[in-house]
Amino acid sequence: MIGANGQLGHELRFALASLGEVTALTRPDLDLSDASHLQANIEQVLETHHPEVIVNAAAYTAVDKAESEPELAVQINAHALQYLAEAANASGACLVHYSTDYVFAGDKPLTHQYVETDTTNPQSVYGRSKLLGEQLIAQYCPKHLIFRTSWVLGQHGGNFLKTMLRLAQDRDQLQVVSDQWGAPTSAALIAQTTTQVLTEMLAAPADDSRWGIYHLVAAGAVTWHQYAHYVISKAREAGLAIKINPQAISPINTKDYPVAAIRPLNSQLNTDKIRQNFGIVLPNWQMGVDMVLKQVLATMPLTTPVVVQQGKP
Questions:
Q1: Are the C-beta atoms of 223 and 249 separated by less than 8 Å?
Q2: Is the Cα torsion angle 15, 21, 27, 33 positive or negative in sign?
Q3: pTM: predicted TM-score of the whole model, two decimal places
């Protein structure tokens, strides 16, 4: 498993252990940005460990910064994956990888979700690098699983939930984008679902029709503004010393919040395919947010004991 120290990698370490021995590699073990040595380093890792499955949780995820350093984003999110895919295919291993809602333009009507076969049209360097990575994996390794996800959160690493909690303690006003829609999806849910799918696919031949791309997000949809209000309100109820009143979180349109990279307005991903092929019904986004919020609040000074009411299943 590559990218073991990341937000998703932390959860994958535990979830994948049910399938067998997990070799968790961090950046010093295998640096996907090291173009000149990467192919040889991958071959050495495979010769040492002989994996049945290669899970890549490493990625370049600085969406705005990618606009000013596209070569690095493309190296990590795309070119490195060709070497991984070729090595996996040559060794008979399957390759698991994670992609993003940013491969779509995000201009579908909000009444519609994106399905796996919809036309891709990324609007940012980050999105284009992730799409190229998908294409290279599909070209060089038939036994692959690519999970497109969105708005990932977890106890480890940086994410929107943690940023909102930090800002809410320091500020009495916040402006949050209110016209981008998606599903906050916990790293734990992604890791658990990955393990469920792999349990069925480990012994599958290369021509099994279930290899391919899947959308993997929590159920439901929310705006960043609604998400921020939910998190801050829950944290306040749980006893975190919040400076801001949740009602003082102001909605703002994307066009009035300038950033380097274009974001999709509609990031709603349809998950019917993973349900039909593996019987997996994904829970509402509130459940994952409540779980992570409880974990994060347990590490913060509270005025009262932590009590986070769970969202509906």
A1: no
A2: negative
A3: 0.95
Q: Give the domain ranges of the chain.
A: 7-159+182-220+266-283
In 3D, which of 301, 171, 167 has the Cα closest to residue 240? 301
Which tokens belong to 234? Answer: 């829950």
Q: Which of 126, 140, 227, 230 is catalytic?
A: 126
Please indicate whether residue 126 is annotated as part of the active site. yes
The closest of 94, 279, 116 to 205, measured between CA atoms, is 94
Residue 305: the pLDDT is: 45
- Are 67 and 125 in contact, with CB atoms under 8 Å apart? yes
Q: What is the pLDDT of residue 237?
A: 93
Bridge partners (DSSP) of residue 213 are 146
Report how far apart, in Å, the C-alpha atoms of 40 and of each of 71, 91, 95 are: 21, 14, 18
Q: Which band of pLDDT confidence, cut at 50, 70 and 90, is reported for residue 302?
A: confident
pLDDT digits (tens, 9 = 90+) for 237-257: 999 999 999 999 999 999 999
Class of domain 7-159+182-220+266-283: alpha beta
